[in-house]
Amino acid sequence: MRVSKDPEIRKQEIIDVAMQVFAEKGYESTTMKDIAKAADVVPGLCYHYFKNKHQLYETAVTQYAKECSEPFIKLFNQTNLSLEEISIKLKKVMKEEDLNYKYKKFFDKCGNEIFHKQLEFYMGKEMETSMKKYIQCMMDRGEFQVDNVDLFTKFFIGGQMAVINCYEEDLDNKIAFLRTMLSAFSK
């Protein structure tokens, strides 16, 4: 007997299960039928909420990027923090995030680099506003100097994602490097 659930709850369950199936089987090997079976629903219900596997995947990754970005957004929303203070807190947040990275097996799997880049892209979009606000507040306090906050924010987000995902370096070295880069713009 099927249990009738609120449509938004059911949709969220499908999204959650889809990410688990993508992580286990990979994107290419996963079908909507696989997701439906794992969610214990009929395939038609998956198609009711998502027109295809790509739309379901994009919805799931966007949602996961929001989840992964949330601690960073909270940090950058603390616009009163100095560069030194934010560097210390950023290191802690990054260590915690690495431990809580529930789909690491999928996004960091060899051959899934394009999916990892998609996650980076969506996370960058999520963090951009709060990071730009933080940089602007530093400029207003006279602690930072760039000609264009918007372009600098976009440049820094892209660059820091590349540094953070450099697996050859340990986290302490990555944070120190990013801090050095930001310090070049500090007054």
- Biggest beta sheet attributes: none
Tell me the fraction of residues in β-strands, as a range: under 5%
Number of E strands? 0
Q: How do the SSEs run, as a string of H and E?
A: HHHHHHHHH
Main structural class: mainly alpha
Figure out the total of helices: 9
Description:
Helix 1 (7-25) crosses helix 2 (32-39) and helix 7 (113-140) packs across helix 8 (149-164). 73% of the residues lie in helices and 0% in strands. It is built from 9 helices and no strands. With 187 residues, the protein is mostly helical. The chain is elongated and about 60 Å long. The protein has helices at residues 7-25, 32-39, 43-49, 53-76, 83-99, 104-107, 113-140, 149-164, 171-183. It folds into 2 domains: 7-51, Arc Repressor Mutant, subunit A, CATH 1.10.10.60; 61-183.
Key words describing this protein structure:
187 residues, mainly alpha, Arc Repressor Mutant, subunit A, 73% helix
List the helices and strands and how they pair.
Blueprint: H1 7-25, H2 32-39, H3 43-49, H4 53-76, H5 83-99, H6 104-107, H7 113-140, H8 149-164, H9 171-183
Brief write-up:
With 187 residues, the chain is mostly helical.
